[in-house]
Amino acid sequence: MPAPLLPNLSRRRALQTLACGFGQLALAGLAAPRNAHAAGPLSPHLPKIAPRAKRIIFLFMAGGVSHVDSYDYKPKLQQEDGRMLDFADLRSLAKTGKSPQQRVMRPLWNFAQHGESGLWASDLFPNIAQHADKLCLVRSMHTEGIAHGPATLFLHTGTTTFVRPSMGAWISYGLGSENENLPGFVTISPSLGNGGPRNYGNAFLPPVYQGTAIGRAGIAAKDATIGNLHSPRTPAEARRQFDFLQELNAEQLRQKPGDSELEAVIHSYELAWRMQGAAPGVLGIEDESPETLAMYGIGEKATDNFGRQCLLARRLCESGVRFVQVNYGDNTNNPAWDQHSNLKKHGDHAQAVDRPVAGLLADLAQRGLLEDTIVWWGGEFGRTPYAEKNGTGRDHNPAGFSIWLAGGGFKPGFTYGETDEWGHHAVVNKVHMHDLHATLLHALGLEHEALTYRYAGRDFRLTDVHGRVVHDLFV
Amino acid sequence: MRFRPLTFSLFFMPLSLSAVESGNDYFEKRVRPLLAERCYECHSAEKKIKGGLNLDSRDGWAKGGDTGPAVLPGEPDKSLLLEAVRYANRDLQMPPKQALSPQELAVLEEWVRMGAPDPRTEAPAAKKQTGLSVEKGREFWSYAPLRLPALPEVRDTSWPRTAIDRFLLAKMEQSGTAPAPDAAPEALARRLHLNLTGLPPSPGQLDAFLKDAAGDRAGAIARLTDSLLESRRFGEAWGRHWLDVARFAESSGGGRTLLFKDSWRYRDYVIDTVNADVPFDRFIREQIAGDLLVAETPADRRRNVTATAFLALGATNYEEQDKQQLRFDIIDEQLETLGRAFLGQTIGCARCHDHKFDPIPQRDYYALAGVLASTRTLENYTDNVARWISAPLPSEGAREAEILHREQQIALVRKELDAAKAELAEASKSVTAASTKPGKSVEPSQLVGIVIDDSEAKVVGEWKHSTHVRSFIGKGYLTDDNTAKGEKTITFTPAIPKTARYEVRLAYTHAAGRANNVRVNILHADGEDTVFVDQTEPPPIDGRFASLGKFRFEQDGAGYVMVSNEGSNGFVTVDALQLLEEGTQPAPRAEAAALPGQEARKKVRELEASLKKLNQEGPFRDMAMAVRDEDKIGDTQLRIRGVERQKGESVPRGFLQVALASRQEPLPADTSGRRELADWIASAANPLTARVQVNRVWGWLFGTGIVRTVDNFGTTGEVPSHPELLDYLAIRFQEEGWSLKKLVREIVLSRAWQTEVRASPAADPENRLFSHTNRRRLNAEQIRDAILSVSGKLDLKEGGPNIGGAGEIDANTTAAQNVEYSYVYTDVRRSVYTPAFRNKRLELFEVFDFGNINQSISQRNTSTVAPQALYLLNHPFVVENAAAAAERSLNAPLEDEARLANAYIEVLGRRPSLKEAQIARRFLDESRSTPAEAWAQLYQMLFACMDFRYMD
């Protein structure tokens, strides 16, 4: 690393002027956006809540996992399998205002109680089930959006329609990053579809808070990296060229003293140079032991890809990244878990993620990281307890579904909320997606009603005018 | 499962208790605690009053909330409160977190049945009024009428060159600040070129200007300005500004992204408009109501229709399943964009309630929404994934004649085809007659391929078995009896013996009154398709089958064919399903050969073939994304809390009251009112329009606006630093025929615009006085175009489509999305022509703050972030263009010193300083690479250095 070219530039000054794209010390109020009036006098003033966790790993199951086949045990579906009954099918209602009869469809996987907690789970995810006593299972989720696009955007940004910052961007904005050489918000293998970049975008927040994509859906995880990290020249040439550049910059700055923005340019180059050195080490997994690789299922065909993504998530967390999203999906309109037909295919997807996720839980636990890391597993919605069009799959169900949380101060081995007897609508201790957002922010020490940003004349927040913290989920 | 009204509540105790308790006792003992515990949290004066409903007083529930009285005493089944707590209406479920227990529910039901005794007669706290009233609002600076100010007096009369200078200097003198010296001619040349054309001056252009300016600086600047304004490049640079405002994009982005394959026409329209200096007020009218304007020529009509894409370019979520919701989301997006683009207003804030700060009542929102609800933006409201409107455009001269000829031919063939089909139908009747005799039906086993009779299909809903039309397969066929549309389906689940492509055929019977739009869904190995069958036509194959297409099915894989009566417009019949493996032809059968009507069938086939050919061959009519007036024109209803389904009172169509110069005239009953809306916006009497636009132009030229919140002229925006200057410019703009070029010219020829860049004085740290020029970053397009022009690779081809393969594709399909997802950016045209996808962007744009093209913006963010540094250090685009620039330079016969000076002039628009030349020479001297490589590295670092990225 070259010696800093501007030794007299104070650290405080650097903090004020350098909006380093990778979330360096993006503490609210310090990383003053360039557009001074865009921040206005109402930049976030955060009440002091004791944080329970420092970071989140979000394992996004794109397409919608069937909760009635995984975590929401409904014996009634077994008993009434095949019966034609009245259900308030949300898609039919949205389209026609009416709902035809639907055929009840039994779960294709068997349920049992697991661990000391006796948490109900099916054998769809047998490895994760072994960690039942780590899970805080929420079975009463409900959300907005019947189609993938709207629901996926809602999951990430709190709205089905409007262009709003994603949750990771809000968290970066609120907390910044713990590592000055790395981004605060990273998404691994994101999809181009169903909102694409909007799902990790900053919208009107300063660009510094946007998510950094590592790879994208369709690119093998082993080839995924941060863009432009590698110089096309030999290390010596690259270094010589870089020194030349910084010398030029210093000379040009000398001609225009006192411009903090120009100083920021020089710092952005220094940071970039440090990142070139530091990031490949974090992104590579060469130094991991064979045992660790095996835990994640790396090296085995079914689990290699998602295993690498999960391992990378752990490494990023260790390096101080605040919000890591791991995507299990693809670029299609009917992403991975979207089994409108042939529900059996859920089994393939489960196989791809089960061991890696279980490995991640075990690995975080053994490293003591699970205490202050929240693992959030879930999709944009669940699936219907009846067969779609009387076929072999299930349609989307935003009215009731399950997600689980682990670590980060959430109650382990705990089950919260209920859907109705069919698993269709959440009815007891309902948790809306807005509520989940509020709860996750709270766990990180952020008050969802106070984490606001003034834009176009009003204060915006992730939860709009909704959201309540579900305190029952906390230890 | 649909929640049943909880009738078992009758078994609980309240009935017996009510007999012994007085009404008020019952309320106090049972109801009040329940309300307090489960409802007051959100419905009491003390806590919150959600939905306008107060449950802490009798008046509260009697008056009710936004949706009307909550309780009708004695009428449990008509009381909204009970509807909500019964959880039977999915839009109204209270308490939202957890339903009441059956016991609690029974208490409330009994209470209402008793007549809802309630001793709480104290008045609820009155609602607070928020926001500014319309009357008060008219006094706010931006809503007040424009006023031409007198030119201010200044002490230093030698400095000002134009009226603008007088206004600025007067303020500077008041605060004791002196204007900065004039900028050096090199800096000024680069500033002018970049601001007006988006490209840096070439060494030749720079040289010519410097020579000209040496003799007559002011004259040289004016001459350069005029030539740049006349350059086609001006339209590209300034059209780009407007494209930001119009949130121009070539895909929808939201949710399932769809390809806006014709939106490039709007882009070209904007560029042409700027180049032709079309008056801005006309530009407004064209974009809002072009389709309703009278066009003198086909070219005018093309422009006018194309312009209305402005209303259709939003980041619409076309797959939203509730299409009325989608309609209102689109209207909301249109209002938000219109408001920001033309009026600097945040109209969207009034969708759910009166604007909290600005004088925009919710009624105004719905008055405007009525205009847009009377406007059609979607093709229909039934498609699963909706689509925008593609409007046909007229052409001119020979081309139009050719297109017309083709269209007439198509119409002709269609007509003949109809006749032939009618003939065939006649013949088919005799087929039917011929097979009327019992036994003329065919057994499935007599047919080839996989055949499933309707009797083996899964049937949902009530289908009637029929043998009325006798040419059926098996024992008869099924009909939906033309009732219960959307509730009946028949699903065939064929067992697939072998993975292959199969032709799928549906057998139905034909008679009068059939539907012509029978929806059939085919789930096959590659996805799901929907096909519509016209059962008003006799089955084209053997008088029994219609082909649904060829699909791949996997052995033992999931697959089905589902016929639905959803949305069908007549009787739907289903007889059987046949799957024929591709390549196998059904063996000719005696009965088929014997069918009469062979002649007619042959003719139909021939005509269909020639129709297909005509449809495939051009010349095609140009299509544009556009809007049109809705079939039904009318006012719309206010939506309570912005919820589409919760309709309030109807609001007459109209505009923002606060910005109305005179009384709101009722809008015509036969058109949407867009024309009138456009006239109101484009009127010289509108206090906002001209102010917003001149301020925006000022901001694009100076870096900050006179009002710095360029898109927000409401009360939460900033006030103008120079209100008189703003009004002066706005009135000049109007008087000069709303000419953009004249406005730009007036601003750049001011002395204030030509000052040099310097640090802000302490007294005015943000340069609100415009005493000097702000150093500004080149935007993403300027960076890209400058690199390409230095390397010599820039292609100046103008306009036209720029997405390979987009023209022929159905924009609503997965194939169209793949055009975006798999797009490789390779072209070297100006950045304004780079495909503007919302989900997959050119990396350089993403890194250098191209801006969020999902919404209207007129001032982009500027960030200084490490990914920019990484991009310039390592991205192949920069590396390769630097190499090309070096190669070009080395081909020129120059001494190294001159070559270095030339490189600086090309990239930075100036010669190197002594120190810079020294550093560069050392870098070149110490290189152990080839000269080509050394010079390539040097060019790359010039692209990377800060002076390239900034404009002085």
Layout of helices and strands, plus pairs?
The complex is a heterodimer of chains A (475) and B (952).
Chain A: H1 11-17, H2 36-39, E1 55-61, H3 75-79, E2 84-85, H4 90-96, E3 102-104, E4 111-114, E5 119-122, H5 126-129, E6 135-142, H6 148-157, H7 167-175, E7 185-188, E8 212-214, H8 235-255, H9 260-283, H10 290-295, H11 304-318, E9 323-328, H12 346-366, E10 373-378, E11 382-387, E12 394-397, E13 401-406, E14 414-416, E15 418-419, E16 426-428, E17 431-432, H13 433-443, E18 452-455, E19 458-461
Parallel strand pairs in A: 1-9, 1-10, 6-14, 6-17, 7-8, 7-9
Antiparallel strand pairs in A: 2-3, 3-11, 4-5, 6-13, 10-13, 11-12, 15-16, 18-19
Helix pairs in contact in A: 8-9, 11-12
Chain B: H1 14-20, H2 23-38, H3 58-63, H4 80-85, H5 102-113, H6 134-137, H7 163-174, H8 185-197, H9 203-215, H10 217-230, H11 232-245, H12 264-275, H13 280-289, H14 298-307, H15 323-343, H16 362-373, E1 375-376, E2 389-392, H17 397-434, E3 450-453, E4 458-460, E5 464-466, E6 477-479, E7 489-492, E8 500-507, E9 518-524, E10 527-533, E11 545-553, E12 560-564, E13 573-574, E14 576-581, H18 590-594, H19 598-616, E15 623-626, E16 628-629, E17 636-639, E18 647-651, H20 674-681, H21 689-702, H22 723-735, H23 740-748, E19 776-777, H24 780-791, H25 814-821, H26 843-847, H27 866-874, H28 876-891, H29 896-908, H30 914-925, H31 931-944, H32 946-949, E20 950-951
Antiparallel strand pairs in B: 1-16, 2-15, 3-14, 4-7, 5-6, 6-13, 7-12, 8-11, 8-14, 9-10, 9-12, 17-18, 19-20
